[in-house]
Amino acid sequence: MPPITVTLVGCAALGSSFTSKLASGSVLGKDQDIVIKVFGEPSKKLSGPLVKGFSVVDSVEDAVEGANFVVAVQGTPELGAEAKTFAALGKALARTHDLVNNTNVFTVGPNANTMALVLSRSAPDMHSSRFYAVSMGEQMMAASELASAAKATTADVDRVIIWGGTGAAAFADISHARVKGKWAGSTLKSKTWVEDVASKVEKVAPTLLKSKADVMADATATTLSSFVQGTGASQWLSLGVYSDHGAYGIETGIFFSQPTVNSGWAPERVYGIPVTAYSASMMEKAQDILLKERDAVKAYV
């Protein structure tokens, strides 16, 4: 197999564990060669039998040229400044014409969905389905809270959903979650178990990248790994995708986190999930935040 080229932008915020996972093969596959490009920040050189190239580049065009994956991490919570930075990255993507059909872009951070929107609008020749916002960090936090309440491990928990976005726009929905294959509600005594977990994640999510970089590194690695190697039909992975169908009452034209499954290189949204009145209200709240973010960066979208 030819090497997969991964471009990292701002990924120092994830710490060294993410790049180590890339180099080890735990993300893209144990037999998958990889070329790593780091844009505009000092980085310790990575080595290993799978690493066929490593470079730190100062030109954003050189950084994204030939990339199969671009992972772009939001450097600060300053929405306007970050939108300007991501717009420049999007324009570089647009100028590198061979990327149109070959590159997948993942954004990470407290406004990852809006940054994905800025990128996609700045690279209009690239289809919106090539851009994704990583919301797996919030999903992992919700799964951890549920596992603790159920006296189980996170490996026992599945079908947790993050609706909306990342950070303040994340709604952690565990109403369909399972613990050891059984509906979580059948094992929990609390009548407010759904609301309890949602509230805890809501408080932590806005500072997740800064306070728990290791969680975000794992979340990003898991998202890329699932993208390449698949999730399995029963495993839901929350992912910010471009809303163009109006499913679940989501307004079109924004990136909105929802459950997906993946058989490899092709995420598919999970449709037909029943939505409770509480979940619907929280999804609307998340959507309102994303729409306000979009309006705040209207110069770039």
TrEMBL record:
> Any idea which UniProt keywords this protein has?
Oxidoreductase
Q: Which SUPFAM superfamilies match?
A: LDH C-terminal domain-like (SSF56327), NAD(P)-binding Rossmann-fold domains (SSF51735)
Which superkingdom heads the taxonomic lineage of this protein's source? Eukaryota
GO terms for biological process, alphabetical = malate metabolic process
Sample GO molecular function, one term: malate dehydrogenase activity
> Sorted alphabetically, which InterPro entries does this protein's record hold?
Lactate/malate_DH_C, Lactate_DH/Glyco_Ohase_4_C, Malate_DH_type2, NAD(P)-bd_dom_sf
- Which residue range or ranges hold the Lactate/malate dehydrogenase C-terminal domain? 146-299
Q: Would the keyword Transferase turn up in this protein's UniProt record?
A: no
- Signal peptide as annotated in the record: none
Task: State a single Pfam family of this protein.
Answer: Ldh_1_C
Family, per entry: Belongs to the LDH/MDH superfamily. MDH type 2 family.
The protein in question is named Malate dehydrogenase
Could you tell me which species this protein originates from?
Answer: Porphyridium purpureum (Red alga)
